Amino acid sequence: MAIPDKTAFENAYKCVSPFVHNTPVLTSHLLDDLSGTSIYFKCENFQKMGAFKMRGAVNAISHLSEAQKKSGVVTHSSGNFAQALSLAAKNLGVKAYIVMPSNAPKVKREAVEAYGGIITTSMPTLESREEEATKIVKKTKATFIHPSNDINVILGQGTAAYELLQKYPDLDCIFTPVGGGGLIAGTALAVHYFSNKCKTIGGEPANADDAYRSLKSGKIEFNETAITIADGLRTHLGDKNFPIIKELVSEIITISEVEIVAAMRLLWERLKIVVEPSSAVPFAALLKERQRFKNQKIGIVISGGNVDLSNLPF
């Protein structure tokens, strides 16, 4: 698969920027001292609908033809992409059909409904989700948009790192979480085209380390189980994002559940912001390997802040 070129990336940014926030970048002297680095946190938890996924959803819908827009869009998701596609579709005047598993959090279902998404409930398996999405496509002629394995979604997600590099062009590394692979692939493209020396590094739970193993083996690996507090990172890589990851991502660092919770708590306490567990994973990866990155300038994408406040791990 050919990797998208610089022009495709710049076009994605033009599509996305009128519809999303250019989110703030936060710093903390205490967290710099603790890590031995200078950290710049790109806070996508302040993005519309509370996560970076709004960027990819907007870009994917914007690239549809007028006929496709009339028929609507469909995806399957239990959380953030369900909300992102619903809100992006509403803002662009398009119908959104969302397949959500029966065990999706009530708060996320309510958010999708509030954004105008038309929900179909599936069994809590990938097969059931895909089956229901296929039925909707056949019935409505809606266009299926994958949450992470879609080139326009990937390009959209990369615009967060692009904004970070515009503000801090001399970063040594940008760390992101790794789940389905859309964010890290998009980030790697931004780094590749708009930085001379920066590296892209992923953080991943050791309990769901398929991307770490995939980068080592050179082929897409899967998890038999993925029991992690970082619920947004339980998905696996796809055939559109993996070639980009394989070519442009320097490494993926795995961390324990205890390290994820400790990093999440630090971010809440020191940055005074709401950060979901998945978003704490890249910071946990930096803390784990801090000796290797000493005195470097590090960007970290805080991917989202959609947390069930009644179920915090501390």
From TrEMBL:
Its cofactor is pyridoxal 5'-phosphate. Belongs to the serine/threonine dehydratase family. It comes from the Bacteria. GO terms for biological process: D-serine biosynthetic process. Pfam families: PALP. One of its GO terms (molecular function) is pyridoxal phosphate binding. It comes from Ulvibacter antarcticus. The keyword Transferase does not apply. This is Threonine dehydratase. Residues 16-304 form the Tryptophan synthase beta chain-like PALP domain. SUPFAM superfamilies: Tryptophan synthase beta subunit-like PLP-dependent enzymes (SSF53686). InterPro entries: TrpB-like_PALP, TrpB-like_PALP_sf. Keywords: Lyase, Pyridoxal phosphate.
